[in-house]
Every structure is written in structure tokens, then in C-alpha cells.
Design brief:
CATH superfamily of the largest domain in chain A: Response regulator
Shape of chain A: elongated
CATH class of the largest domain in chain A: Alpha Beta
Number of strands of chain A: 12
Order of helices and strands of chain A: HHHHEHEHEHEEHEHEHEHEEHEE
Distance between the termini of chain A: 67 Å
Number of helices of chain A: 12
Structural class of chain A: alpha/beta
Oligomer: homodimer
Amino acid sequence: MANIHQVAKYAGVSVATVSRVLNDQGTVTAKTRIKVEDAIKELNYEPSMLGRNLRNSESRILLILIPTISNPFYSEIIKGIETAALKHNYNILLCETDSNPERENIYFDLVRKKMADGIISMDPAVNMETLMKLAEHHSIIQCSEYALDSGIPYVTIDNEDAAYRAVKHLIRIGHEKIALINSDEKFLYARQRKLGYQKALRENGIEVQDNYMFHTQELGFDQGRQAMRKILDLDDRPTAVFTVSDLLAIGALKEIHQHGLLVPNDIAIVGFDKIDFSNMTHPTLTTIAQPMYQMGTIAANMLIDKIKGNEVDSIVLDHELIIRESTSG
Amino acid sequence: MANIHQVAKYAGVSVATVSRVLNDQGTVTAKTRIKVEDAIKELNYEPSMLGRNLRNSESRILLILIPTISNPFYSEIIKGIETAALKHNYNILLCETDSNPERENIYFDLVRKKMADGIISMDPAVNMETLMKLAEHHSIIQCSEYALDSGIPYVTIDNEDAAYRAVKHLIRIGHEKIALINSDEKFLYARQRKLGYQKALRENGIEVQDNYMFHTQELGFDQGRQAMRKILDLDDRPTAVFTVSDLLAIGALKEIHQHGLLVPNDIAIVGFDKIDFSNMTHPTLTTIAQPMYQMGTIAANMLIDKIKGNEVDSIVLDHELIIRESTSG
DNA sequence: ATCGTTCTTGTAATCGTTTACAAAAACATC
DNA sequence: GATGTTTTTGTAAACGATTACAAGAACGAT
């Protein structure tokens, strides 16, 4: 493979001139530009990002920290990030932490070692202390899940209000016994959504019952099933369930079917996220739509801005209640 | 941020010695090693991958080419790739082509420009000519979808046999009118699976009917619905459907339900891939299990081997028929 | 004390770019 | 043609690591 010196020699110019042609900057006569371009073609030259990156002290890579790629919620965000990144000539390094601190550290090291120019963190289980320390010298954006007092800019939705609206919808269509399948309350979004759930109940004179609130370790299908199983075992069985993720909802749905009950007639369900699959189940899921793609593009643009050295402000995006079959009884 | 020279100065040694400590090679006295390690700690030094990569002419990045991250089939493979890559100190650059040649080219450029050390291509729609040309000078592995005569090593399953077994299962449980929802036959796997479908029919004295075979542009839910709609419109309606992806199958399932019919009683369905969601539907999907995670790890190991300059052989992995509710009538 | 070995360290080139600065060329003006 | 101004090009120093090779230190044997 040819390098810039060989191109310069072949074209009979200096490396500086070749570089100028390459980057379309500085002034180059048409005649020399053509000489250089010919040489580039002739030698099949491709400029090495390794040299360029070293010289520019950048990697043009953004690190995306997610707990797992299996949750479609994240894939949709990633799409947004990728498109925005590409537009600015950045590429994305995918990092699944599996909420494993060891992996997390490997990935943090990548930005410490300049292999990445910044981080978009979407892992609720991320080690906040480390992240904050890292943020002192590196560009970081929080996406979806965040710590308010970290001083790290974030893009997210109003979780409390979203949950409030979801539960209010259930109340409006006549439900009073409404269960909550939440995730671990060590996560901010879990606490916020619980608040929304409680607020909706209280506002409508419905007592908040502790035995109607369940917690799961993860946001998956299996956890949804298990939680639903417990709910079905309750003496005073709820007529509706609000879950904090579509995957949980789909698990709950499955469990309800397995018990020979019908959704929404016997039990209504509301999910959260509006992943593609929420529209593929039978019945289709009522859910809260998060603007995932947009969250991705915005997060990426914020990060790139931050890398450039600009100040960036946190953003709260709109959500929307999508009413579908699982509550239309 | 400190660099190696500052560390050397602080420790009172040469950069060579620091480098030796960093990489645990060459000989260093215990005494000087400690001096260097102290300096590293004191200055908060982190070796820059940019310098190292340039010197070593490598990026330690593997490029993963997929059509879309939304299909869980790919996410599972990616998990395998990531784990294997990490074990060898490589990282993965995620590249969604959306089967868009322009995007593809952007990503190909990354390896031309040494931003990536190799490619794992999983995009059936990849431009084979370009890929083959690229393979002359770069390390490439095909995963799942492949071109046999490309000379590029691949890891995959026996698609024909898998389809054959799926359809034979349908025949065994009494079906004779079996439709096929296939994807575009420009893809090798589509042609192979069709062969398997036909072989199973012929072997059992069932005529292969052209009007029972359908093609879709993509492997998604919507395409599955549309194809199923056409099938339901047939005069002589099939009693079973074999689809070449779980997403297609889930779409078909939805459409059947919408028409007030039951699976498997009215129509049985077999999918392909065994994505997580195939177990979440109601009824659960009979499907062909591809060892996706394993395919990922193997592909990654093959690629890393190839990058090292070793010869690597293509591999055909085992598949398995998973019988579930959608055919257990 | 001298020599030969072995072990440890240092010097300086290298990887492939970009860019500040200097130098040369081109042009306009008188 | 001499001079000044502008435009175009070239020289050489970064960026931050690794590594041949050379040199120096340490050590035992004589």
C-alpha cells in the first residue's frame, strides 16, 4: 500500500501539497491538483486513518454503552445514533456491558486510551462514580437513563408524566385495581415511573397498595412472566397491569394466556417503549411511545457538539400514549 | 494528558524502558520497573492507542456489516462476535447498511483506510464484486449468508437440509398443502431453503405448486403479513406454511389471527432462526434453531486468525428443529 | 586488574499524516 | 526590468507509541 510520500514523489510534488488536495484546503493550482489526483489513482492510494488520527489526536469513534443489544428499545436508539454519527464522519463502537462492571471497565479504558472520542451511556447500571470522573476529561452524554446531579448532559423523556398518563388511561376506561410491574428502584426511571403510577391512582381516589407493586431484576420477557404469575396468584386479582417495558408486558401477556384468561377482557395491559414487537403480539399492546430514533440522533449530535468543545444542554423529549388492543375492552 | 516521554523523564529512564514495562516484554529490573510504574501512576498516564496503532499498523477493530440491527437474529450473532473479539483485544464497529450501497461503501472505506482490520459480512445484499476485490488485500469472513465461489471463508448452516427437515415435519404431522414464504431468490439462502422445501415435498409424492410459493423483499413482520394475506386468499388454501424467518412467521401468525383462524388448528406455521421472540408469541413458534451466538464467536475467531495471516477453513454448523405450539395440533 | 558474558538500558528511526513557517513562483505596478 | 504583493509550493517538526541496534553495567572467571 502506498503512502503519502510515494504519492508525492510520483506526482512530483511535496507531501504537503498531497495533503492539501486530500483535504481540500489551502490553495492548489488546477494543474498540480490533477497531477496529484492522477498519482493517487495510479498508485491506488488510500490515506491511512491511523496516521491522520494520531496527528489530529482523535479517533472519530463514538462509544455506545448499552446493557444488552437484545432489547429492541436500544436497537432503535442505536439506529438514530449511527445515522447522526455518520453524517459527521463518526463511527460507533458498540459496547454491551451486560451490566458487568468488568466489561464496563474495558470500554471505559477505550476512551482513556483515545480509542474513542466520547461516550453515549445508556446503561442504567453504569457505575456513576467512574462515569463522573471520566466526564472530567472526556465528552459524555447520558441517553434515556441518567443521573440528574452528575452534571453530565442527558436526553430523556418525562418518565413520571408518561407513567401517569398510562395509568390514567387505565383508570379512565374503568379500572381501579391496577398493578405495577416495575424494575429495580435503584434506577431513576423506575422511581420516576412509580411516582407517576402513584400520582394517577391518588388523584383518582384509589389507594396505592404495596402488594400491587412488583419489581424485577431485568426488563425481559421471563421477568414479565414471573411477575405476572405472582399477580395472578393474588387473592384480590387486579384487572389491569402497567409494566415499565414492552418486554415485561409481553411476558405478562403470555402468562395471562397460559392461564386461560383473555386480554383485555379479563386483564388489561399497558407496556412502555413502543418497540416494534408491541405491534406484533395478539392482542397488540397499548404502550408509551418513546421517540427512540430521535433520542439517538439527538444524543449523537449532543456528543459531537461536546467533543467540539461546545456547551450542551440536556433535553427532555415528548412521549405519547399509543392506545391499542390490550386496553380496548 | 501525559505521554510516554514525560513518563520516561519523570521516572528517569528512556522511553524504550517505559514501553517495555507497558508491554511486559524485554527485560527490566524490578527496581526500574517500580520507578516506571510509580511515574505512570503519578502522572495518571494512559498509553494512547493512536500512537500504538500507527506504529503497529493495526486498529484492533473489526467491522461488522449487517443489513439491520432490528432483526434479533443479528443481535444474537453480534453478541457472540463481541465476546470473542474482546477476548482477543479487538473491538467491534457496528455497521448497518440498510442494504444501501452508499452506506456499504462508507464502511468499506473504513477498512481501506485502515480504520478496521477486517470485516465480518452478514449482509445478504452486499455487493459481492466489491467484497471480493476488497478480500484481495484485506481479511474478510462471511457469516450466515455467503457466496460459495467468492473464495472468502464463511460460517453458516446447511440451509437446504434445515428447510427440508422443517417441511418434512409438517408432512409427518399430516399436512400436504404446504405453502412457502421465501425471501428474494437472489439470496443464496433463499434458493437453498426453497430446494429443501421442494425436496421434502417431492420425496413424499406431493406436487410442488408455483402458486404456493411466495417471495418477499425483506424478512420483516409486515412482509409476513402481506404474504399471508395472499395465501389466505387462495382458492385451495394451504393448511401449513413454512417461512424462512421467524419475523415473517410472526407476521403470518398475526394475519391468520386477524382473519379469525387458529394456529395450528386451521393453519400450522414453521419459522426459521429461533429468535427470542419466537417463544413469546401465542402460540409459540416451531422453528429452526440456528446456533447464532456460536456462529458469532466462530466468525470472530476466524477473522482474527485470518488477520494474523493464517489460512482459515469455512465451517458449516448444525441446526435443529424446535417443535413448539404452532405445529402441535 | 583484565577479559568475556550476560543482562539491562538508551538512542534514534519508524509508522503516515497535518500544518506552521519559509521559500519560491507568479503576477501586477510603475 | 525592478519592486512589491499575492498565490502556490516545499521543508521539517510534530502527534505518541514500538523496536533494531548499540552501548553500558554487572558479574564471574582467570
